[in-house]
Amino acid sequence: GQACGRARWRARNQSALHIRGSTARPAVTITTPPTTDPTSLAISPDGWTIAFVASDAGRPRLWLRSFDAASARSLPGTDGATLPFWAPHGRSIAFFADDGRLKRIDLDGGAVRVLANAPLPRGGAWSRDDTILFVSEGVLLRVSSNGGQPETLATPDPGNGERFYQSPQLLPGGSDVLVSIGVGPAGSRRVVVFN
Questions:
Q1: Is 4 helix (H, G, I), strand (E, B) or coil?
Q2: How far from 64 is each of 59, 118, 174, CA to CA, in Å?
Q3: DSSP secondary-structure letter at 72?
Q4: SS3 assignment, position 5
Q5: Which of 48-62, 124-138, 180-194 is predicted with the least confidence, judged by mean pLDDT?
Q6: Are the CB atoms for 150 and 143 separated by under 8 Å?
Q7: For the chain, what is the largest distance between any 2 Cα atoms, rounded to a whole number of angstroms?
Q8: I need a surface site. Which of 18, 30, 145, 193 has the fewest CB within 10 A?
Q9: DSSP per-residue string spanning 134-188
Q10: For residues 86 and 105, what is the distance between their CA atoms, to the nearest angstrom?
Q11: Is residue 103 within 8 Å of 94, Cβ to Cβ?
C-alpha cells in the first residue's frame, strides 16, 4: 500500500533488511540460497519485493521474494542472470545473462525475451518512456524495452582518462541519467549526469 511506498529501507548488517514506515514493524530478515553474486539485487518500485541472484541447481538464477511471503521463488529461464533492474510499473524485470545478452522477464507469465546483445555488462535502468539504458563494453546504450538495435548514447573519452561507464541510474523526473565513469589506472571514479 501507500505505507509501503513511503517505507525507508536500510541495511543493518549483511543478512538483515529492516523496514521502517509510519508504524513500527518487526524486522524482516531474508535468507537466500547460496550465491557468488551478492550485490545483484534490486527492490521493486513499490518497495515490497526484492529480486536477487542466487544459485539454483548450481547455476545463478533470478529469484523473487515479497516481504510478506514465507519464501523466495526462482524464475525459470533466467539461468546465468546478473545485475537485475525493475520496470517502473513493477511487472517486469530486465537482467543480463552470462550469454552476453540483455533479457526481460514479465512476471505475469511468458517466456524470457532477448532485448539486445550486451557483452561485459555494467548495469542498466528502465525509464518511464519504456526504453532501457544500459552499459555494455563500457559504452552507454539505449534500447526499446521490447528489444531492437541499441543506440549509442555516450562513449568514454580516453583523452580525459575515461575507461568505461557503469551503473546508470535515472534521476527523479526520468529524463536525466547519472553514470559512474572509471578513470585512470587506480580505480578512481567520476560521476556525471547526462540529460
A1: helix
A2: 16, 23, 25
A3: -
A4: helix
A5: 180-194
A6: yes
A7: 53
A8: 193
A9: EEETTEEEEEETT----EEEE---GGGTEEEEEEEEEPTTSS-EEEEEEETTTTE
A10: 10
A11: yes
d(CA 31, CA 45): 21
Contact between 132 and 143 (Cβ < 8 Å): yes
* pLDDT 10s digits, 12-21: 223 344 445 5
Read off the amino acid at residue 87.
A
Residue tagged 515479497 (cell numbers): 66
Q: What is the pLDDT of residues 102-134, one digit of tens each?
A: 999 999 988 999 999 999 999 999 999 999 999
Backbone angles phi and psi of 4, in degrees to 5: -65, -40
Instruction: Enter the pTM of the model.
Output: 0.82
Residues 191/181, Cβ–Cβ less than 8 Å: yes
- Confidence (pLDDT) at 19: 46
CA dist., res. 163 & res. 119, Å (int)? 16
| Cα 128 from Cα 193, distance rounded (Å) | 18
Helix, strand, coil content of the chain in percent (nearest 5) = 5, 50, 45
- Strand-pair partners of 49: 66
CA atoms of 172 and 193, how far apart (whole Å): 12
